[in-house]
């Protein structure tokens, strides 16, 4: 039997919100192994201008991401849902190795398989330099 990741589609507003919160919690763990388990073995990603296929590439991408995006903190918000798809808006803050703080804004489109694993994730992201005093997301 395939791994299941409830809540399962088709989504209601309640289950879509639970799915978004679970994703926020997992990403805030900054644990590539934990996060990768929410995706199908052959999941397709577009993250900015990077295209990934499968859990192994996702894990490596996340390892590199959190090695350079220090003190990462994320907030996600449900935007829309239907059937097996969810759209979210998000923002996260992190600092680079030189101490520069960034706020990144974006939108994601998610598509899930019948077991609640994400089969597709398409993310568009924009970055804004901020000062430490402008941070909104506490660690």
TrEMBL record:
<dbReference type="InterPro" id="IPR009783">
    <property type="entry name" value="DUF1348"/>
</dbReference>
<protein>
    <recommendedName>
        <fullName>SnoaL-like protein</fullName>
    </recommendedName>
</protein>
<dbReference type="InterPro" id="IPR032710">
    <property type="entry name" value="NTF2-like_dom_sf"/>
</dbReference>
<dbReference type="Pfam" id="PF07080">
    <property type="entry name" value="DUF1348"/>
</dbReference>
């Amino acid at each position: 039997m395939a791994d299941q990741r409830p809540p399962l589609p088709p989504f209601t507003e309640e289950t879509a919100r639970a799915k978004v919160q679970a994703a926020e919690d997992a990403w805030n763990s900054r644990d590539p192994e934990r996060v990768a388990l929410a995706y199908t073995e052959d999941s397709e990603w577009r993250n900015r201008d990077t295209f990934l296929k499968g859990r192994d590439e996702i894990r490596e991408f996340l390892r590199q991401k959190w090695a350079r995006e220090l003190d990462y903190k994320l907030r996600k918000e449900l935007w829309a849902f239907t059937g097996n798809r969810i759209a979210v808006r998000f923002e996260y803050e992190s600092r680079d190795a030189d101490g520069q703080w960034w706020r990144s804004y974006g939108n994601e489109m998610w598509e899930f398989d019948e077991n609640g694993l994400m089969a597709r994730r398409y993310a568009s992201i924009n970055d804004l330099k901020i000062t430490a005093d402008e941070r909104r997301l506490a660690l």
